[in-house]
Amino acid sequence: VISGAISLLRDANASLFTILNRMRELAKQLPEYETVMAMSGVGETLGPRLMAEIGDPRRFHDAKALIAYAGIDAPPYQSGQFTGTNRHISKRGSKVLRKIGFELMNTINVHQRFYQDYPVCIYFLKKRAEGKHYRVAMFAAYNKFLRIYHARVSEVLDAIEQSAS
Length: 165
What we know:
By secondary structure, the protein is mostly helical. The protein has helices at 2-28, 33-38, 46-54, 63-70, 95-110, 119-129, 134-164, and strands spanning 78-79, 82-83. It is globular and about 60 Å long. The N and C termini lie far apart (62 Å).
């Protein structure tokens, strides 16, 4: 029974490796590949997954829409004159994009010595120094990462579109 389970896990791992390699090959053909891969914390596995999940960031009218798509925005809580300040993320968007964000921010946190000068890491450390809970700081930093991602990738795609016309 155990040897059968081990064999099944090896087959699944080989399939996953094949899929990730194919995703990497396809992602290299996209014009934004170099820009995304140059971002700190994004590696050969997370980069293609991030690009596949977001697609063309220009389909979101601004970075806030991308953040809402990821489901890490805090919805407003108001009733009459009361405005709530203790809010949680909405979780209404793509859970895959939230998982990728968690992995990305965890990588940046674990390897802080490599990312000391990266604005997202600086922001994460600032939030932690303010006493924010680990995951609150992590998703605040991921929010910042998505804003940067939206700006950089949209700029590259707009420049390519401008040169083509």
